[in-house]
Specification:
alpha+beta, 9 strands, 24% strand, globular
Length: 181
Amino acid sequence: MTKLKYIRKPNNYTIFKQYDSRWGRLPYPVLPSTMASSGCGCCAVTHCAIEQDKYMGYTPKNVQPYMKQFAERGHGTLWSGITKGLEHYGLKNVKSIDDIAEVWKELAKGDRVGVFLFGNNHAPDGRIFTSGGHYIAVCGYAKDSKGNDWVYLKDSGGRNNEGWLCYQTSIRGTLKKMWVG
């Protein structure tokens, strides 16, 4: 792997899968929608929350009761719910961002985490994150010697797009919305 200059490494490397039997069958927000089918937003907020000592022991099962009020049956978490969830679980100055340059400015501050909403476009390396929409937590940021931006993703879905990924080669063209706080 390319040598990275880390600006922020994750505090907690735990990755929760939304289909985990401990919470996958929970309603999100109401049955027949479940955490397994629609809970990626809740899991992404959980991944950001556990970056803080106060919430380190939390799982999606702890966060689901609060987050389900911001979910829509068959569609999952509303965009406004990501902001509300991040704020509720301790993130300050949460920004909903459309411009990737602004995301890099925020993440470069070193104490920020966030959530990316992926669409169904293919990344330059052919990677696809979802067939619809999918929230993934961003819990680390780094740069390489060529100036490329790297993020540490915690993916709750089944495609296992987690770990350090380069934006320019593995993410560019796939994002619909971003939140950082």
